[in-house]
Design brief:
The protein is of the alpha/beta class. The protein has two domains: 6-131, Response regulator (Rossmann fold), CATH 3.40.50.2300; 142-199, Arc Repressor Mutant, subunit A (Orthogonal Bundle), CATH 1.10.10.10. 55% of the residues lie in helices and 12% in strands. It is built from nine helices and five strands; from the N terminus they run βαβαβαβαβααααα. The chain has helices spanning 14-26, 37-43, 63-72, 88-96, 109-140, 145-155, 160-167, 171-185, 190-199, and strands at 6-10, 30-34, 50-55, 79-83, 101-104. It has a five-stranded parallel β-sheet with strand order 2-1-3-4-5, with helices on both faces. The model has no long low-confidence stretch (mean pLDDT 86).
């Protein structure tokens, strides 16, 4: 049985927490509600990964401030911002800060569910990326320091001769290290070796 997706609903209005919470539960989601941004930030460290529905206008700490704190803490759960105020300026700010969507109250069920679908798609991609990064770091860890240096040179786009010059070794030695690292990484092409190097943080992979 597939576990339910968790939605964290942060809104100071009790009526919104009850109505939206009920809507989401009947749509198959697990729902955690919070009456303020401060309450959510206190709980988020141990919270189940999921999607955040975040109200903008709240006492104590507004949604924009909560979003900023989440970013500072490195919490990457996708955020959908809710507001009862049609404020284009706020919409631009939250979207620039990485929000998945901006919904005005009262929102349509279909619009909310569509936004949540996008949010979880983003979360899945993030999880998959984290898994690839962890696997790549494990594979790169088996390389010798010299093989790692050669791989970094390749990830920086340097030819064998340049790597040899930088490391003060012969081109032939670079070729040997290159062959050895590809064997250890269990790859058959330079492009596959580079994907592992980039995933492990040894170079900058351009955005697709």
């Amino acid at each position: 049985m597939t576990p339910k997706r968790t939605v964290h609903l942060v809104d100071d209005e009790d009526s919104i927490r009850k109505s939206a919470g009920f809507m989401l539960k009947t749509s198959g989601f697990a729902v955690q509600t919070y009456a303020s941004g401060i309450a959510f930030l206190k709980a988020v460290k141990t919270a189940e990964p999921g999607c955040i529905l975040l109200d903008v206008r709240m006492p104590g700490m507004d949604g924009l401030e909560v979003q900023e704190v989440l970013a500072e803490r490195g919490i990457t759960m996708p955020v959908i911002v809710l507001t009862g105020h049609g404020d284009v300026g706020i919409a631009v700010r939250v979207m620039k800060a990485g929000a998945v969507d901006f919904l005005e109250k009262p929102f349509e069920k279909s619009a909310l569910l569509a936004s949540i679908g996008v949010a979880f798609s983003r979360l899945d991609k993030s999880d998959a990326r984290s898994l690839r990064e962890a696997e790549a770091r494990v594979r790169v860890a088996v390389l010798t320091p010299r093989e790692r240096e050669v791989l970094i040179g390749l990830a920086n786009g340097f030819p064998n001769k340049t790597i040899a010059y930088d490391l003060d070794i012969s081109t032939r030695t670079v070729e040997v290290h290159r062959a050895n690292l590809m064997t250890k990484l269990e790859v058959h092409s330079l492009s596959d070796a580079l994907r592992i190097a980039f995933a492990a943080g040894l170079g900058d992979l351009p955005e697709p």
